TrEMBL record:
It is a multi-pass membrane protein. Pfam families: Ninjurin (PF04923). It is found in: Membrane. It comes from Littorina saxatilis. This is Ninjurin-2.
Length: 137
């Protein structure tokens, strides 16, 4: 049996259907999800910072300052991403300029989140370790 192909009229009807979820609702959900993940990562970095600062001075390894800088950078980038996502969530572009601004903010947030991911990979790779110094009494 030969399979029937949809006619051109049927193909046009199918492409004109509206998506099940409106694009504004999708964008809002995506922004909320990104914000929630950003908050979870912020809390994890705050916990890592606390663990790092709690290490006594005589037990710190060579990577202490590097980890301190990376965790601080990660937290600063997360705050910047959070602010951008907050602004992006409140933005409702109505004209071409608004769409360009929204696209720029979206691209900026994606870039910052990528940078946060790379920084946190380095934090995890280095790790926070507690070095026992052997001291003679």
């Amino acid at each position: 049996m030969a399979q029937t192909q949809p006619s051109d009229v049927e193909a046009e009807i199918r492409t004109d259907k509206k998506p099940f979820v409106p694009s504004k609702a999708y964008a809002t959900r995506k922004t909320i999800a990104q914000g929630a993940l950003d908050l979870a990562l912020l809390m994890a970095n705050a916990s890592q910072l606390k663990a790092l600062v709690d290490i006594p001075a005589n037990h710190r390894n060579d990577f202490y300052v590097g980890l301190l800088v990376l965790i601080g950078l990660s937290i600063a980038l997360q705050l910047a991403a959070g602010i951008i996502l907050l602004v992006l969530g409140m933005t409702n572009p109505k004209d071409e300029e608004g769409h360009k601004r929204t696209e720029c903010l979206n691209n900026s947030s994606v870039s910052i989140i990528l940078l946060i991911t790379v920084v946190n990979i380095f934090i995890s790779a280095i790790g926070i370790s507690y070095v026992e110094n052997e001291s003679t009494p």
